[in-house]
Amino acid sequence: MKPNLATHFLFIHIKPKKKKKLLNPLQKHSNMLFLRLVFGSIFIVCCLTTLSNEASLPNAEVEALESIGRTLGKTNWNFNETCIQGNGRLDQPSPSFGDSYVDNVTCDCSFNNNTTCHVIHILLKRQGLSGTLPLNLTSLPFLQEIDLTRNYLNGTIPRGWGSSTRLIKIVLENNGLSGTLPAALRDLPKIEKLHLGSNYFTGKIPETFASLTSLKEFRISDNNFTGQIPDFIFRNWTNLEKIYMEGSGLSGPIPSINATLHNLTYIIISDLNGAETNFTQPLIDASLPKLERLMLRSCNLIGEIPASFGTF
Asked: How is this protein positioned relative to the membrane (predicted)?
């Protein structure tokens, strides 16, 4: 009987402990789960903070932006916020001006496993800037676009801009810029948009521009250029989509526009000086498939309008 009593005693003795063990693991599990969630959240926050802190703009580019800001007359840049998690500093358009007001420095922070940022866009539209163009943009080696539309900038386009070989867009419309266009811009192999309208540029379009075969938009309206419209515009620039030459100062005749410009959608030319353009010559090939708008106003045109124009 002793063995049975012993067994019974042990059973009675252990049962309360089992209750405690059943309760404690649940409590411990709940507590551990809570602690894991807390520490996990802290870990994630720390990691994100570390990652965002690690993605930094090189000092050389920070210094370059400071120099560019001073040259342009930009006084309100906060260089601690120039690159924010790769998105740049994007200010909302002013309600007074809408989309024509833009204050935007955009950075790409995907370099070196998301640890390095580089400036890729500078958009300072309608900022009231009254300085000059920075002499050299090569300190921003990844810069793709600079847009300084609707300011009061003066001076010339520095020849050093030709060394910024990643540039895709140069937009300088509606300023007070002057002088001739630097031949060194021929060294911009990726340039797609060159907008120079409403300034005081003079001289001829450099022959070296014939090499700008990636160009899609060329806008030089409202300037004081001289010389004839270069033949290479409608011969070499086979990617051209839009051309604006209203009151540019250039002279005719208009070079022949052939079907190799199969992407051409806008041809806007007006107020040409100099020689006449004769419609009896093959001026525009009727097979331009994408042409949407053709304006040839006050261009000293003579002859009959070709019947083929009705096919555009």
From this structure: Single-pass type I membrane protein
